[in-house]
Amino acid sequence: MPCQHRLSKEQRVFSVYGVTGHVFSGTLEEMNRVRESARSRASRSVDRDDINWQGDNLVASASGLNDKAVRAYRAMLPREIERGPLYHAGQIMQREVICLGINDEVGKAWRTLQSRGIHQAPVLDDATQLVGMVSEHDLLTAINIDTGKIMEVLGRRVGDVMTTPVITAQPITDIRRIAAAMLTHRIDGVPVTGDLGRLVGYVSRSDILRAVVADPPLSLWR
Fold first, then answer.
1. Sign of CA dihedral 176, 181, 187, 190
2. What is the dihedral of CA 214, 215, 220, 222, to 10 degrees?
3. How far apart are CA 136 and CA 110, in angstroms?
4. Cβ neighbours around 198 below 10 Å, total
5. Domain containing 134 — which CATH number?
6. How far is it, in rounded angstroms, from Cα 165 to Cα 123?
7. Distance CA 93, CA 190 (A)
8. Are the CB atoms for 177 and 185 separated by under 8 Å?
9. What pLDDT, in 10s, does the model give residues 111-137?
10. Burial class (CB in 10 A: 0-12, 13-18, 19+), 1
11. Cα separations (Å) of 171 from 10, 57, 150, 151, 187?
């Protein structure tokens, strides 16, 4: 019989994969403890300490929003806000994902990103296992671009410049928790992997935003 403290499949909603394979599975909180974010946020519009909810009332401190602005905002809110459906990664993810190979030349990788109109892509090894992510910024460390054309390429491959390990989510992961992982770890998207670690989709910031503005509205609270 399995130990009672073991996480259920529903709780193991995040994983981390690198060149050595699968290195972590667990909750968002556990992942955050493992992968501490070293950089602090450069700027903020409204500090979380400046705003808090007490029951159904929005309260702002004197150092935050002024009372007049808060009252105006509250006046715009409907008396009752219908709580819309929750969404999981499997419902909103992109199922056709453009991938790059770990041994692809950086010049080829750059042209792939540009022709597809994307800014980053998952990286697969020769066994088609996810091992990292590579972005335009990563590739620019090995190529020289002038007026949109490749002028000089160092003898490097995608595996030399990619970011690894990479955070992934399962199809059952609540997209609110994916959004939290993106903010905490400063990433623009999360690959979605199946039970065997195979890439099955990708969730970007745009995918989450589309779900937020969908009708009926997304429930953003528990």
1. negative
2. -140
3. 7
4. 12
5. 3.10.580.10
6. 11
7. 9
8. no
9. 999 999 999 999 999 999 999 999 999
10. exposed
11. 10, 35, 37, 41, 18
How many distinct structural domains can be found in the chain? 1
The residue type at 183: L
pLDDT (tens digit, 9 = 90+) per residue, 179-200? 999 999 999 999 999 988 899 9
Task: Give the burial class of 146: count Cβ atoms within 10 A of its Cβ; 0-12 exposed, 13-18 middle, 19 or more buried.
Answer: exposed
Q: 139 lies in which domain range?
A: 89-212
Inside any domain, residue 165: yes
Using the structure block, give the residue that is written with the tokens 């910024």: 137
Q: List, in order, residues 6 or more apart from 192 with CB less than 8 Å away.
A: 89, 90, 93, 168, 169, 170, 171, 173, 199, 200, 201, 202, 203
Contact 110, 156 (CB under 8 A): no
Structural domain contains residue 68? no
Hey, which of 20-24, 85-89, 147-151, 174-178 has the most confident mean pLDDT? 174-178
Type of residue numbered 128? T
b vs e for 52-88, b when ≥16 Cβ sit within 10 Å of the residue's Cβ? eeeeeeeebeeebbeeeebeeeeeeeeeeeeeeeebb
Q: Is residue 144 part of a domain?
A: yes
Q: Which residue has the tokens 């335009």?
A: 136
Position 12 in a domain: no
